[in-house]
Amino acid sequence: MSDFLEQLPIVFDALNEGFLQTLKLFVITLLGALPLGLILSFGSMSKFKPLSGLIKTVVWIVRGSPLMIQLLIIYYFPGIVFDNNIWGSGLDGRFVASAVAFIINYACYFSEIYRGGIQGVPVGQQEAGKVLGLSKTQIFFKVTLLQMVKRIVPPMSNEIITLVKDTSLARIIAMQELIWAGEAFLTGSRGISGQIWPLFFTAIYYLVFNGVLTILFGKIEKKLSYFKV
Amino acid sequence: MSLLEVRNISKSFGKVDVLKDVSFTLEKGEVLSVIGSSGGGKTTLLRCLNFLEFAEKGQIIVNGEVLYDGVAVNDKKLRENRLHFGLVFQNFNLFPQYNVLKNITLAPKLLKKGTDEEIEADARRLIERVGLSDKIENYPCELSGGQQQRVAIARALALNPDILCFDEPTSALDPELTGEVLKVIKGLKNGDSTMIVVTHEMGFAKEVSDKIIFMADGIIEEMGTPDEIFNHPKSEKTKAFFSKSLENL
Ligand SMILES: Nc1ncnc2c1ncn2[C@@H]1O[C@H](COP(=O)(O)OP(=O)(O)O)[C@@H](O)[C@H]1O
Ligand SMILES: [Mg+2]
């Protein structure tokens, strides 16, 4: 028991460091994928067929294959095939490679959510704006935008909560995120080895983080619940 | 000079000719009902008048001004043109995120049709006219279909269109709710509005219209007063349409 109490602060230190990496990857993925996804969704709705076809194919491949494979390919491909490991071998390189893979992967998922939200607004809404003499910009900002947001929030919150858990996949290229930090105490780290309980503690981090996000998204949905689309 | 003159409007979708050389005139304060079986081009006609579709050829003239002559106009002109007409849709198309008042004031405010106070006072008068003063703060999802359609009518009236068009305004409503909407439209006739009403409500058309157009397969098969069309139809197609409508009653 006294062992446990001695180990606890050491483990928490390590887990906090890991969680910081997890959080960083999460935030950077959102910052990159939210706007990139919007651009992709416009591309996939483009009337220029080669563009929409290309983007739809990319989205299909990215969504249809495991993120873990995408991480491995993005990290190892340049070094093995071109003999040029653009990421470097350090921790920063692993983080950047992870961020790139996550941003691409999540942008593809988000693009489909945006597309659903945009195309889900009935064309009658635009037409009602048109016959009232409104401009395209006025129609977008005053008529359709909020309806899109309302349609997008529920699937988006699901996807973002999945992202929290998916960040752990970066462990496959040895990015030192939360699971990696917990798992290290199995094999030995900071003078502790053969301990499984730190790994259980990592789960609590995810649960709390996702709990906070769930409450946040619930608040947003509630705020938009005064109207139906 | 007629308020509205439509000359030789033609419109096709791909290979299908939906409107073929449609011409008619409408005087200020008149009510024109357009009847005919579904697929005849009635909706397309209203959409062309409101510039949601563009006729390949023909002219649309309001108050002597040629708004449209078969060629595209720039965006600014297009929006000005649209303001000559109002359109009440079959399925209302109210803005769900705004309450009744804001649905009506949104466009006048964005188009700076007056001060906010004037626009709101106007809107309140219109809401009273359609009998919904107690629903002014409600959102569309809290209203019945008939109430939503009455709001849609007030919304269209708020911009003072020269000609107000209705595309089967009661078709999406439960039968017991059609009466309240038809009553509002009848009330507008006394208020001197010029209207084009596409409708399947024959009794209503007969009672309210100055003029009836019977459309079939993209042409005006027959045009005349309610008495001429309902009591003395000349065209075989018109007669067939009436006997079929009677069967369905
Ligand atoms: N956007 C469109 N694209 C292709 N065909 C259309 C379109 N809109 C209407 N049509 C066709 O035009 C014809 C007339 O339709 P419509 O004007 O809606 O008739 P109505 O209102 O009298 O029922 C129909 O055959 C319909 O299928
Ligand atoms: Mg129709």
Descriptive notes:
The complex is a heterodimer of chains A (229) and B (249). By secondary structure, chain A is mostly helical. The model of chain A has no long low-confidence stretch (mean pLDDT 94). Chain A has one domain: MetI-like (MetI-like fold), CATH 1.10.3720. In chain A, 31% of the residues are buried. The longest helix of chain A is centred in the first third of the chain and has 43 residues. In chain A, helix 3 crosses helix 4, helix 5 runs antiparallel to helix 6 and helix 6 packs antiparallel against helix 8. Chain A is flat, with a radius of gyration of 22 Å. With 249 residues, chain B is α/β, with parallel strands linked by helices. In chain B, the strands form two sheets. In chain B, strands 6-7-8-3-9-10 form a six-stranded mixed sheet, sandwiched between helices. A four-stranded antiparallel sheet of chain B has the order 2-1-4-5, covered by helices on one side. The model of chain B has no long low-confidence stretch (mean pLDDT 95). At the A-B interface, helix 5 and helix 6 of A face helix 2, strand 6 and helix 3 of B. The structure holds adenosine-5'-diphosphate (ADP) and magnesium ion.
Separation, N- and C-terminal Cα atoms of chain A: 57 Å
Shape of chain A, please?
A: flat
Mean pLDDT across the residues of chain A is 94
The succession of helices and strands of chain A, N to C, reads HHHHHHHH
What is the first-to-last residue Cα distance of chain B?
40 Å
- Tally of contiguous helical segments of chain B: 9
Throw out a few tags for this protein:
heterodimer; A: 229 residues; mainly alpha; MetI-like fold; 79% helix; flat; B: 249 residues; alpha/beta; six-stranded mixed beta sheet; four-stranded antiparallel beta sheet; 9 helices; 10 strands; 39% helix; 25% strand; globular; binds adenosine-5'-diphosphate; binds magnesium ion
Architecture blueprint of SSEs:
The complex is a heterodimer of chains A (229) and B (249).
Chain A: H1 2-44, H2 49-64, H3 67-81, H4 91-120, H5 123-131, H6 136-166, H7 178-187, H8 197-223
Helix pairs in contact in A: 1-4, 1-7, 1-8, 2-4, 3-4, 4-6, 5-6, 6-8, 7-8
Chain B: E1 4-13, E2 16-26, E3 31-35, H1 42-49, E4 57-62, E5 65-68, H2 75-83, E6 85-88, H3 100-110, H4 116-129, H5 145-157, E7 163-167, H6 175-190, E8 194-198, H7 202-208, E9 211-216, E10 219-224, H8 226-231, H9 236-248
Parallel strand pairs in B: 3-8, 3-9, 6-7, 7-8
Antiparallel strand pairs in B: 1-2, 1-4, 4-5, 9-10
Helix pairs in contact in B: 3-4, 3-5, 4-5, 5-6
The structure holds adenosine-5'-diphosphate and magnesium ion.
